[in-house]
Amino acid sequence: MNILIRAHSGLRYVVLALLLAAIFIAYSNWRKNSQEDSKVYLFAMIAAHTQMLIGLILYVMSPKVNFDLIGEKVFRFFSIEHIFMMLIAMVLITIGRSRSKKLVGADKHRTVLYFYTMGLIIILVAIPWPFRNLGNGWF
Predict the structure, then answer these.
(1) Which one is predicted more confidently, 9 or 90?
(2) Contact 43, 18 (CB under 8 A)
(3) What does the alpha-carbon distance between residue 50 and residue 29 come to, in Å, rounded to a whole number?
(4) How far apart are CA 116 and CA 64, in angstroms?
(5) Res. 35: pLDDT tops 70
(6) Do residues 112 and 96 touch, judged by C-beta distance below 8 A?
(7) How far apart (Å, rounded) are the C-alpha atoms in residues 25 and 41?
(8) What is the pLDDT of residue 25?
(9) Whole-prediction pTM value?
(10) What distance in Å separates the CA atoms of residue 130 and residue 32, rounded to the nearest whole number?
(11) How far is residue 103's CA from residue 30's CA, in Å, rounded to a whole number?
């Protein structure tokens, strides 16, 4: 269990970095009206899905997921808020990637830019940062 928690906590930085890189590349390619696709879009989606898979395993096993104590801030966050926001973010990222594959030119990159940015914002809100007092550290 401890290995999965460390992997989940550490992989968040890889996901954030790849999403930021994908957003930057999408913006750059959109402004240049580039026709080529970037593999970073795919890598960001794969990393996010891997993170989600580890998170779902932890969700089933974690003592922080307890619906009997839903009135307490930490249990409510991990039982409801965190999982649903992350699911929404994954859906947005997946939709952005799948729609972009069907488009050409600037529309392809603009789609990735919009959907990945929305997903990133939701992910940033849903991460249990140490300053939110949810019992988690930076790693």
Answers:
(1) 90
(2) yes
(3) 26
(4) 28
(5) yes
(6) yes
(7) 9
(8) 95
(9) 0.90
(10) 39
(11) 12
Rounded to 5 degrees, what are φ and ψ at 47?
-65, -40
Asked if pLDDT for residue 52 goes beyond 90, the answer is yes
Q: What is the mean pLDDT of residues 30-50?
A: 93
Q: What is the DSSP string of 84-128?
A: HHHHHHHHHHHHHHHHHHH--THHHHHHHHHHHHHHHHHHHHHS-
The pLDDT value given to residue 109: 95
Instruction: Report the chain's mean pLDDT, rounded to a whole number.
Output: 92
Q: Which two tokens stand for residue 48?
A: 């996010």
Classify residue 102 as exposed, middle or buried by CB count within 10 Å of its CB (0-12, 13-18, 19+): exposed
Encoded amino acid at 11, one letter = L
